[in-house]
Design goal:
This protein has two domains: about 35 residues, no CATH class; about 70 residues, Orthogonal Bundle (Arc Repressor Mutant, subunit A), CATH 1.10.10. The protein is built from six helices and no strands.
Length: about 110
């Protein structure tokens, strides 16, 4: 708890000193730096969320920062059964948009 209070003081200090406009922006920048320094965190989060059926395979790949096929291999390596197809209507829409983008990129090559 003491360390959390210290972080809160530092974040408020960054805002008050004009380094960041808001606490949210300071926290977002800290997370961005953390993920840049430790890219494996993104993969672990993606694996966890996919395994708990919170996100699709496509979304897991985006979060992990890898291509769709690599994400499939990562999940299989971790003993996670692949779920193919959309989870819900919003996920289906996202898959359609992603597919259209892939096809557009293929045509432009």
């Amino acid at each position: 708890m003491k360390q959390q209070q210290e972080y809160d003081i530092i974040i408020k200090g960054m805002v008050n000193a004009g380094i960041y406009e808001t606490e949210e922006k300071a926290i977002n920048e800290a997370i961005k730096s953390l993920l840049k320094e430790n890219p494996e965190i993104k993969k672990k989060v993606a694996i966890y969320m996919y395994n708990n059926e919170e996100i699709s395979l496509e979304r897991a790949a985006e979060i992990a920062g890898v291509c769709y096929e690599d994400m499939k291999l990562i999940l299989v390596e971790h003993g996670i059964k692949l779920r193919l197809g959309p989870i819900d209507q919003e996920d289906a829409k996202q898959e359609v948009l992603s597919t259209r983008e892939i096809l557009r990129n293929e045509r432009n090559r």
